TrEMBL record:
PANTHER family: NAD(P)-BINDING DOMAIN-CONTAINING PROTEIN-RELATED, PROTEIN YEEZ
Database matches in Pfam families: Epimerase
Gene3D superfamilies, alphabetized: NAD(P)-binding Rossmann-like Domain
SUPFAM superfamilies per UniProt: NAD(P)-binding Rossmann-fold domains
InterPro entries xrefs: Epimerase_deHydtase (IPR001509), NAD(P)-bd_dom_sf (IPR036291), NAD(P)-dependent_oxidoreduct (IPR051783)
GO molecular function terms listed in the Swiss-Prot or TrEMBL record: aldehyde dehydrogenase (NAD+) activity
Ranges where the NAD-dependent epimerase/dehydratase domain occurs: 3-214
Name used for this protein in its record: SDR family oxidoreductase
Gene Ontology CC entries for this record: cytoplasm
Lineage: Bacteria, Bacillati, Actinomycetota, Actinomycetes, Propionibacteriales
C-alpha cells in the first residue's frame, strides 16, 4: 500500500514511518522544509514538499495514495488563540484529505486524544469532548469519522496524554521542559490525577493496524499505562534532573491547565481484543529513567 502521512518527522511520525516500511508499505511523507525532506528520505520514504496549511499539497498527497495517516499538528499551546489557530489549520487539512478520498473506500486514519470520564476509565465507546480547549479537535475527528457514510474507511487512533520515547514526548515531556526552565518539577493540584501513556513504538503499531484493518467509522485507544499519578511522573522527573518536586498553580500550564489538572485514566481493552494490539515497550515511569540531567 502507498501511504501518505502528515507529521512523519515527529516523535510519533518517525516511529509510524518505520513501522509502515518494515511491513512492506511505501510511504510518502509531507515535508515542510529541506531538513524534513532529507530526514524522510534517509528513513526510506519519499518526501512531498509542503506544509499542513498547503491544502493543494495535502489534497494531492491523499489523492495519490492508497491510504492516509494524519499526525501533524502545530502544537502551539502558548495562548488560547494560538491553540485555536492550530486546530483550524488541522481541520482544513483533514477536510481536504477527506474530500479527496470520498467514494474510494480507502483508509484515512486520524488522531485525537483519549476522552476523560468522571469516576472511571474512558473507553473506545465514549465520545470525544467537543467543548473546552481542545473541543475543536473533537468536532473535527467526529466529522472525519462520519465520512464512513461517504465511502471513506475513516478511523481514529486516540492517543493518551503522554506518548513517550527515551523519556521525551507528550504531557510528561511538557512537565520536563517546564521543570528545566523553572527549576522545579511541578504538578497541578495534589498530583493524584492520573494520565494514561504509551510508548511511541507501540502507538506506531496501532496506527498500522488501523490503516490495514480498522472498520469505517471506528475509534481505538493507544493506551498502555491506564493512568499514572502526575505526582509520580513529576517525582521521577525531579529525581532525574535533581530538582525539587512540588505542587504548582494550574496557570503554570497556560491553556492546558484545566486538562493537566483533570483525572483522565483510560482503557484499551477493546482495542487489544479486536485489533490484536499488544504493547511491548517500556511504560512511562520506566522510560522516564532515560532522562538526562
Amino acid at each position: 500500500m502507498q501511504v501518505f502521512i502528515t507529521g512523519g518527522t515527529g516523535l510519533i511520525g518517525t516511529a509510524v514511518v518505520a513501522e509502515l516500511l518494515e511491513h512492506g508499505h511505501d510511504v510518502v511523507a509531507l515535508a515542510r522544509s529541506d531538513a524534513s525532506a532529507t530526514a524522510v528520505e534517509a528513513a526510506g520514504a519519499s518526501a512531498l514538499r509542503g506544509s499542513l496549511a498547503d491544502l493543494d499539497a495535502v489534497r494531492g498527497g491523499a489523492e495519490g495514495a492508497d491510504g492516509v495517516i494524519h499526525l501533524a499538528f502545530a502544537n502551539d499551546f502558548t495562548t488560547p488563540d494560538a491553540l485555536a489557530n492550530a486546530v483550524a489549520e488541522e481541520t482544513a487539512a483533514l477536510e481536504a484529505m477527506g474530500e479527496a478520498l470520498v467514494g474510494s473506500d480507502r483508509p484515512l486514519v486520524t488522531v485525537s486524544g483519549t476522552p476523560w470520564v468522571s469516576g472511571r476509565l474512558s473507553t473506545e465507546s465514549d465520545p470525544l469532548p467537543v467543548d473546552g480547549p481542545v473541543g475543536g479537535r473533537g468536532r473535527t475527528v467526529n466529522a472525519i469519522l462520519e465520512l464512513a457514510l461517504r465511502g471513506v474507511r475513516s478511523s481514529a487512533v486516540r492517543l493518551p496524554r503522554t506518548v513517550h520515547r527515551e523519556g521525551e514526548g507528550g504531557f510528561a515531556g511538557l512537565l520536563t521542559g517546564i521543570a528545566r526552565q523553572s527549576g522545579v518539577s511541578g504538578y497541578p493540584g495534589d498530583g493524584t490525577q492520573r494520565w494514561p501513556a504509551v510508548h511511541a513504538l507501540d502507538a506506531a503499531v496501532l496506527f498500522r493496524l488501523a490503516l490495514e484493518t480498522a472498520p469505517a467509522g471506528s475509534a481505538w485507544h493507544a493506551v498502555d499505562d491506564e493512568g499514572d499519578a502526575v505526582r509520580d511522573i513529576a517525582a521521577v522527573i525531579g529525581r532525574r534532573l535533581g530538582l525539587e518536586v512540588r505542587s504548582v498553580p494550574e496557570t503554570t500550564y497556560g491553556p492546558l491547565g484545566p486538562i493537566f489538572a483533570a483525572d483522565q485514566p483510560s482503557s484499551s481493552a477493546r482495542t487489544r481484543a479486536e485489533l490484536g494490539w499488544t504493547p511491548t515497550h517500556p511504560r512511562l515511569l520506566a522510560d522516564l529513567e532515560n532522562l538526562q540531567p
